[in-house]
Amino acid sequence: MSKRLKIQCWNCPKTYFENLDTTQKELIVKCPYCNTRGKVNLRPYRKQNKSATIYRKEDAPMTTQSDEEFQFPDVLPSRKEE
Ligand SMILES: [Zn+2]
Question: What is the DSSP secondary structure assignment for residue 26, as one 8-state letter?
Fold first, then answer.
């Protein structure tokens, strides 16, 4: 499941859109303006009020509604890659 989200570059700091795989906890993004890679952490935006458990299965796609499980801000901050 991917979602188009607005990212703020930690380096420039401009904003740009990226399709992010919301099944991942942490994603690598690349700023189109300064070509700097950064990390985006999705964990803080996962909603806690759902009783549904996310099962981590390697080859089974998740059938849960990912859009409902996240609450993203207008702009997601990125941070420097370690
Ligand atoms: Zn940048």
Answer: E
Is the alpha carbon torsion for 7, 27, 68, 19 positive or negative? positive
Note the pLDDT tens digit of each residue in 53-75.
556 656 555 555 444 578 899 99
Q: What is the pTM of this model?
A: 0.72
CA of 48 to the centre of ligand 1 (A): 31
Any idea which of 18-27, 38-47, 62-71 has the lowest mean pLDDT? 62-71
The range of the structural domain enclosing residue 69 comes to 2-80
Q: Provide the domain count of the chain.
A: 1
The rounded Å distance from CA 78 to ligand 1 centre is: 10
Ligand 1 (ion): which residues have CB within 5 A?
Answer: 9, 11-12, 31, 33-34
Which DSSP state fits 55? P
